[in-house]
Amino acid sequence: MELDQKVVQLVGRAYEGSRAFRERMDGVGLTPDDIGGVEDLRKLPVLKKDTLIDLQKKDPPFGGLLAVEPQSLARIFLSPGPIFDPQGCDGDYWRWKEALEVGGVAKGDVVLNTFSYHLTPAGFMFDGALRALGAVVVPTGTGNTEQQVMVAKRLGATGFVGTPSFLYAILKKAGEMGYGPGDLSLRVAFVSAEKLPESLRDTFETGWEIKTRQGYGTADVGAVAFECDEKEGMHVSQGVIVEILDPNTGEPLPAGETGEVVVTLLDPSYPLVRFGTGDLSQWMEGPCICGREAPRISGILGRVGDAVKVRGMFVHGHQIRELTNIYPHIKALQCVVTRVGHRDQLTFRVALARPVAPEVLQEFRERVRERIKVKVDHLELVDEGEIENEPLFLDLRKWE
Ligand SMILES: [Zn+2]
């Protein structure tokens, strides 16, 4: 089916079944008759991630967006925001199979899936795609590098799925345990949720002979783009329409200019239409040597506005502000993200209104971890003057 036809069908069915989508259309005076194809989607304003958070808060669990009965869902996840994410059916619901296949994962591969299976959808996203591909999944989840190495060794695992920094941690541990490239059977890795520096890819590909490709997606929409063998940007996945818009004017941008990645999920049961991911990227010029027609975006170049990604998890400004409201003795706070080796480090610089016992700060750190799902590596006490006029997030990572 032509993309224009798919859009017409998406809008028609979403308007019929999804209360929030209908209200969004009505709010700007549109009916399904006004949307005749991809171009007409631009008549609808972008759905911001924060708007989705608000919608779900006011009208739980899915903000009136879901166009099917909640009882028909396979799973429900909770990703940071907080946002509830529905999984409509088992199998390759988030369409990662295409990305994995192009990345070199094949039927019969035994793959460590190191994404979390807990609350956030990443673990199940790749589990379903790997199974659809005919790969054998070892759902190791996050953490415990020594056990990951043992499992990889004894099972003769051939594939890895997870963040690049976690693959690095596992290989480093393998080295400490006396294993070299010839001792493990790993031959292919698909990484996501974090930036993949070329130096790190080289460590995997040259140092450990693990072919490494990356993909980009979100907890809300699943697969958005993936690398081919040319490793020059990422092709847009099937099942989504991608736009890159000027964050200030909302106008589409030409190749080479940085703007917000806005995604339309071609799934009428959960119509995320023109969903603003908050991620920044660019269109790449011209066709790819590989011959695929799907256009390419460059890697993710940052975040629009008030959020930062640490070790694969988004940390939002409003989460930090809500936490500091609970602790009145914290007068000002700044989150600094650095990179040591191949691991993100999160430092909180805190200015106190009055001295407090170390236990209070420890409790605060634990509350933060519970809330944002990322551990604060360092807590630094500073004078208020040092941070009061500084941005909430300071990203000092270098990627070369
Ligand atoms: Zn290509």
Task: Please tag this protein with its features.
single chain; alpha/beta; GMP Synthetase, Chain A, domain 3; 8-stranded mixed sheet; 11 helices; 29% helix; binds zinc ion
Structure notes:
With about 400 residues, the chain is α/β, with parallel strands linked by helices. The chain has a domain at about 310-395: 2-Layer Sandwich (GMP Synthetase, Chain A, domain 3), CATH 3.30.300.30. About 30% of the residues lie in helices and about 25% in strands. The protein contains 11 helices and 21 strands. It has helices spanning about 5-15, 20-25, 50-60, 95-105, 120-135, 145-155, 165-175, 200-205, 315-325, 360-370, 385, and strands at about 45-50, 75-80, 85, 110-115, 135-140, 160, 190, 210-220, 220-225, 235, 240-245, 260-265, 275-280, 295, 300-305, 305-310, 315, 330-340, 345-350, 380, 395. It has an 8-stranded mixed β-sheet with strand order 5-4-6-7-8-9-10-14, sandwiched between helices. Strand 16 (about 305-310) and strand 17 form a beta hairpin. The longest helix has 15 residues, at about 5-15. Zinc ion binds near residues 230, 288 and 292.
Q: Summary?
A:
Helices cover 29% and strands 26% of the residues. It has 11 helices and 21 strands. The radius of gyration is 22 Å and the shape is globular.
